[in-house]
Design goal:
With 420 residues, the chain is an alpha+beta fold. The chain contains ten helices and nine strands. The longest helix is centred in the first third of the chain and has 20 residues, at 81-100.
Length: 420
Amino acid sequence: MKPSATARRSFLRGVLGAGTVAATAGFTAETARAATPPSTVTDPLARLSAVPFYGAHQAGILPAPQRQAATIAFDVTADNRGELTDLLQAITSRIAFLTAGGTPPPVGVTGPPSDSGILGPVVVPDGLTVTVGVGAALFDGRYDLAGRKPAHLTPMKMFPNDDLDAAQCDGDVSLLLAAGDSDTILHALRDITRHTEGAMQVRWRIDGFSSAPRPSGTPRNLMGFKDGIANPDTADAAQMDRLVWAAPGAAGPGAAAEPAWTAGGSYQVIRLIRMFVEFWDRVSVTEQERMFGRRRDNGAPLDANGEFDTPDYAADPAGAVIPLDSHIRLANPRTPQTADSRILRRAYNYDRGTDNVGDLDMGLIFTCYQQNPHRQFEAVQTRLIDEPLVDYISPFGGGYFFALPGVRGDDDYLGRTMLA
């Protein structure tokens, strides 16, 4: 149900009470800075240290997947551009506090608590990152943003082998929360939704996890194969500038130039992919390996011995060893023409129990970042149309979003340059 105008005005009063810009129900940026420093947090469950929040880019894009995650898309219900600004300031303020950790402020004896308490009296950072994106729908006529839409941002494209459910696709805003433990994720989600009530409403949500390396190296997906071995090197700044970060002003033939405000951001593609594991588990390992093009036990290409060895397609032009329609050969042909279509994969597994007929409902929350989803993700996905794996998977949801530039300091907030 769409929140009423009264509820939205209530949100506005909570955010901007007493004339502050980023206050949210008693929390402000000052509160976040004054909270107990992460170094003083002694909770034994705080196994991961705080990830710095401020910077040119959002902190959750480049690091490897955390142990736990949740991906949520929201519909924005703010009435106008001013309330959208308040919403983004509130989200920024909450993320700044939650990722740093600290002690929530006390409240009066008759008021509701300032924190859910599920992490105890002290909020531990636990490596929390929250990556915030905006979808194409946000740039309609509601907030006078049509002229500021990122050049390549569109609703998610449906490919021939997809079975998309509109209720689990797209959205105005995406949040990808990642941390060491599931209670950290739930705490952050409850906190953010509490402080933004009346301004945005959940459209769809899915929780995920990253498996521990078994026995070592890259984590595995729920088909038993190592997932994301051939990622670009995130430590190579030049490669990240070419493949991941938006390029303001750049435009291909007949394409619009990327707005200047997008500097520091990246296109985020999310695809929810169900795996029909009951059928997959009845397929021989040899056939599974030929579909992927890698060995299941150690992740090596079928023509090599090590997980990170480079397949030699030139020595196997007919696909006798690594089939021409194998996943790795289609996804990354390793030619000069496809070098700039590489993507940064950041995928999570999911398990939602069983469906309404008793089949296991599990699969992959495929997430990737890139400079241009048409040049990169869509080019890769087009090559994968009708690959052998499509008999065992079914993409059903997700969306295209633009991960906003990072927050550079206390006087900045997520989306500031977009709204300027």
